[in-house]
TrEMBL record:
It comes from the Bacteria. 5-phospho-alpha-D-ribose 1-diphosphate binds at R103, K104, K107, H109, E129, D130, T131, T132, T133, T134, G135, N136, S137. This is Orotate phosphoribosyltransferase. It catalyses: orotidine 5'-phosphate + diphosphate = orotate + 5-phospho-alpha-D-ribose 1-diphosphate. Its EC number is 2.4.2.10. Homodimer. GO terms for molecular function: orotate phosphoribosyltransferase activity. PANTHER family: OROTATE PHOSPHORIBOSYLTRANSFERASE, URIDINE 5'-MONOPHOSPHATE SYNTHASE. Its cofactor is Mg(2+). It comes from Intrasporangium calvum. InterPro entries: OPRT (IPR023031), Or_phspho_trans_dom (IPR004467), PRTase-like (IPR029057), PRTase_dom (IPR000836). Orotate binds at T133, R161.
Amino acid sequence: MTAPQTDVASARARLLELIKERAIVHGRVTLSSGKEADYYVDLRRISLDGEAAPLVGIVMRDLTQDLDYSAVGGLTLGADPVATSMLHAAAAAGERLDAFVVRKAGKAHGLQQRIEGPAIAGRDVLVVEDTTTTGNSPLEAVAAVREAGARPVAVATIADRATGAGERIREEAGVDYRFVYTLEDLGLA
């Protein structure tokens, strides 16, 4: 169960304001894809912010409310605070949602796990990230959770850069792709 609709609508509107105020950096930058852009959307400025992070959890849970999953996570680092925000939003709503972290490579010591957190084998999971450009990070996370025995139900992100990642995720991973904000919403298109 998610927050009442008015709470979600106000959370979504306030989160968008905060992203526009704090996370959009104008100027020439090189993206993880190697491409250059005239702006950068640094959503860690949002997902790690004391006011914005709780809103991320509310909005992302609303975006995925029709899906059935018991754990949420993705490739470190962008996914970590998003998953944690969702975990806390679920707890605030009296529900349980586990979070997990997909390492970029398995540990060479200890239990040598690639996925940290509660076990996800046999579970339906949601793969998340903060901003999606190429789709490489969520595709890597989907592959890792499948290897760990989990079933990814979808990939969800806060902001989509409209570069074809959604189509790539749907085609290569065979899962649904969802996002909260478009470049138009962010005033970047």
